[in-house]
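WP5 quarterly update. Target: SCO family protein. Source organism: Neobacillus paridis. Length: 200 aa.
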Amino acid sequence: MKKIYLICGLAIFFGIAAGISFFLIRDANAAIPSDVTLINQNGDQYTFGKDKTKLKLIEFAYTHCPDVCPTTTQKMVGLKQQLEKKGVFGKNIEFITITIDPYRDTPEALTRYMKGFGIENGKHWVFLTGDPQNIKADQKKLKKITDALQFQFKDPGNGQFVHTTFTYLVDKNNKFIAKFPMGKDFNQQDVYDKIIDKLE
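Structure tokens (predicted):
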């Protein structure tokens, strides 16, 4: 009987280990396709493979989000200030906020959202959405990004999206480095330390 328990225990252990290894390998190989192009808060095109000089911290959000998204954005504002003091923001790393609600989050809506957090309209923190004239095609582009990073989201029909609660750090080639919790669990210092570690 003890041998049966031992065998069962080992089978469970190796099953869990294999599952963990699968997810670690999957994340390590994740990368955003370099040809994906969306538009930013100014209506200008942004292509992920164009700039290969900076790390990117990617936040998925939507402007009607009641809690997790704005909390994360606010904490990223503080993180940005830390990185500016270090002299690396804009030079070695940029922030990208991508809406999961491109129908409502037009460039104008994203600009209002930025202003609400005191985020200047610059080129080192871009807010991306779909082109209103080509929204269905751009939704497919958005899906390429979320699928690459294993970010899940769904609109249950009331406009309040259910979504994964992670932000993502990717390298100069848009390849996955690490992910961090969103909302109140977004630890500004942990993210800062990880970014600086990758830059040094």
